[in-house]
Structure formats: structure tokens, C-alpha cells
């Protein structure tokens, strides 16, 4: 299988409620540069040829187009939930995208995704008919809680993975799967779940553990340290990398 054209969808229309900051988390700065700019920079580094659809809240008061390094990109309106934002972008692509085009979806809140993982993901998905996602095996012992916050059972972690992004699927299959999930009232939190609901088995592609999704306040400091360490490893310099 080949990739005719590579599409990137970056859902960035969330409000960052769990972060509890004075602005959506994608606009918080890490070393003078907002999370959104850092995430797009990483994606562009790995996929300069891609066409981007960036999902933004219609009332977004923070966005600056100078943070988008892609030559071919468009803004699309976000929806109520993440899945609605991604679907808006997929619907927007309908006149241009071919059924077999590969679409990669990446959360704006994951600025630490490593270029090596992005490269490996794309290389794997080119020959993968169903599609797949970056993921990491669960490392901690897993407990199931009752409503009082007490352990009811220790779950086996055998075969359990954390689902990360990017997640990549063929345009036609992904659009149908997400519309199908919504029609059936299944509220999916990632693309793979919708594909699974179609009876297909997305490929798990082992990625790095430092592909953190900034979600809670302490994550911003973690992301800052991860980015600094990655920059040092990539360039040998202890700097706020010039991404
Ligand atoms: N997102 C989106 N449209 C929405 C909701 C979320 O595009 N209606 C995006 C977010 O911007 C983020 C990604 O989906 O990049 C993952 O969502 P999440 O981590 O939950 O971010 P938020 O929804 O912003 O955070 P919270 O749930 O804490 O409010
Ligand atoms: Mg959310």
C-alpha cells in the first residue's frame, strides 16, 4: 500500500478544564513558546509534506497563525467533544481527500511526541491496511476502584496498553467509523475505538513513554523537562530548542 497524500488533523478546540489555567492549555507557554506551536513544530519536522486541518474553537481568542509552520493548512471549527472536532475536519476534507489517503490525528496537548516515533508510525502505517496508533504497554499495577475509592480488584496488566497519538487510518474508513460511532451513540475518546467498533483491529505501534498528554497542572512542568531533555539528546545542547 502507498500513501497518496498525507493529511494531518490536530484537534485543538478543547478548553483544558482539568488544567484549570487562565487559558486553554494549548496556549500555555513552555519556554516562551505555546504548547500549540511546539506540537505543530514537531509534526512539521517529521511530516513537512503533510496538509494540516487545525480544529479551533470558533470563539478562540488566543490563536496566532504565525505558529503554524505548514505551507498547506486550514482552520476548521471545533465541535462539542474531541470526536466532533475530528469529524468536522474529516467532513471538511471530503472534496479533496481520496478514500485511501492516510489521515493522522494528533492531540495538540502532546508537544513531546518524538520525531523518531512520528517517522516510525508513518513507515508502519504505509503498509498497514487497517491503520494503527502509537501506544505504550501499561507499567503500573492496575486497580479497579469502587465508588468509595477502595480497591475492588487488581486487574491483570497483561496485554494492556495506553493509547497515545498520533493515530492513523485511511480517510474513508475513519470517517465512516466515526460517523457510525456517533450514530450508535458510542462516545469515543480516540479514533481507534471507532475503528474497533467496526470489528477491525488497529495495530499497536510501541512508542516512547515521554509522549505525555498535558492534562493536569503538574504536567506542564513534566513536559518542560521532557522537551529540554529531548532537545539536549537531539542536539547535544542544553537549550530551549529552536523548533
Ligand atoms: N479537543 C478538541 N475539541 C473538543 C475537545 C477537545 O479539539 N471539543 C482536543 C483538545 O484540544 C486536545 C485533545 O482534543 O488537544 C484531547 O482532549 P483533552 O486532553 O481532553 O483536552 P481538553 O478537552 O482541552 O481538556 P479537558 O478535558 O481537561 O477540558
Ligand atoms: Mg477533554
Note down, in words, how this protein is organized.
A hairpin with a 5-residue loop joins strand 8 (142-145) and strand 9 (151-155). The model has no long low-confidence stretch (mean pLDDT 95). The protein is built from six helices and eleven strands. Helices cover 30% and strands 22% of the residues. A seven-stranded mixed β-sheet has the order 5-4-1-6-10-7-11. The chain has a single domain, classed as Alpha-Beta Complex (Spore Coat Polysaccharide Biosynthesis Protein SpsA, Chain A), CATH 3.90.550. With 243 residues, it is an alpha/beta fold. The protein binds cytidine-5'-triphosphate (CTP) and magnesium ion. The site of cytidine-5'-triphosphate has 23 residues, from helix 2. Residues 11-19, 24, 26, 55, 78-82, 85, 107-109, 213, 215 line the site of cytidine-5'-triphosphate.
Give me the count of strands: 11
Q: What percent of residues are in strands?
A: 15-25%
What is the CATH first-level class name?
A: Alpha Beta
Q: Globular, elongated, flat, extended or rod-shaped: what is the shape?
A: globular
Q: Supply the CATH architecture.
A: Alpha-Beta Complex
Low-confidence stretches: none
**Protein structure class:** alpha/beta
Mean of the pLDDT scores?
95
Heteromolecules bound: cytidine-5'-triphosphate, magnesium ion
Number of distinct helices:
6
| Biggest sheet layout | 7 strands, mixed
Helix content: 25-40%
Radius of gyration: 18 Å
Helix-strand string: EEEHEEHEHEEEEHHEH
Trace the largest sheet across and list its strands: 5-4-1-6-10-7-11
Look up the CATH topology.
Answer: Spore Coat Polysaccharide Biosynthesis Protein SpsA, Chain A
Amino acid at each position: 500500500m502507498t500513501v497518496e497524500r498525507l493529511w494531518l488533523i490536530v484537534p485543538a478546540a478543547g478548553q483544558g478544564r482539568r488544567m484549570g489555567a487562565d487559558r486553554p492549555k494549548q496556549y500555555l507557554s513552555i519556554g516562551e513558546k505555546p504548547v500549540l506551536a511546539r506540537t505543530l513544530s514537531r509534526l512539521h519536522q517529521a511530516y513537512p509534506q503533510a496538509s494540516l486541518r487545525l480544529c479551533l474553537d470558533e470563539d478562540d481568542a488566543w490563536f496566532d497563525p504565525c505558529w503554524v509552520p505548514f505551507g498547506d493548512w486550514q482552520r476548521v471549527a471545533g465541535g462539542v467533544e474531541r470526536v466532533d472536532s475530528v469529524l468536522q475536519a474529516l467532513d471538511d476534507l471530503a472534496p479533496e481527500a481520496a478514500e485511501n489517503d492516510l489521515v493522522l490525528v494528533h492531540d495538540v496537548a502532546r508537544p513531546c511526541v518524538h520525531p523518531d516515533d512520528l517517522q516510525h508510525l508513518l513507515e508502519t502505517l504505509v503498509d498497514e491496511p487497517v491503520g494503527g496508533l502509537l501506544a505504550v504497554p501499561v507499567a503500573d499495577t492496575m486497580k479497579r476502584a469502587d465508588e468509595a475509592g477502595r480497591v475492588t480488584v487488581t486487574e491483570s496488566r497483561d496485554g494492556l496498553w495506553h493509547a497515545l497519538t498520533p493515530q492513523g487510518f485511511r480517510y474513508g474508513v475513519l470517517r465512516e467509523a466515526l460517523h457510525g460511532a456517533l450514530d450508535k451513540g458510542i462516545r469515543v475518546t480516540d479514533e481507534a475505538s471507532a475503528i474497533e467498533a467496526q470489528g477491525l483491529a488497529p495495530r499497536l505501534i510501541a512508542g516512547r513513554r515521554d509522549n505525555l498528554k498535558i492534562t493536569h497542572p503538574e504536567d506542564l512542568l513534566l513536559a518542560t523537562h521532557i522537551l529540554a531533555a529531548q532537545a539536549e539528546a537531539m542536539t547535544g545542547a542544553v537549550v530551549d530548542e529552536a523548533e
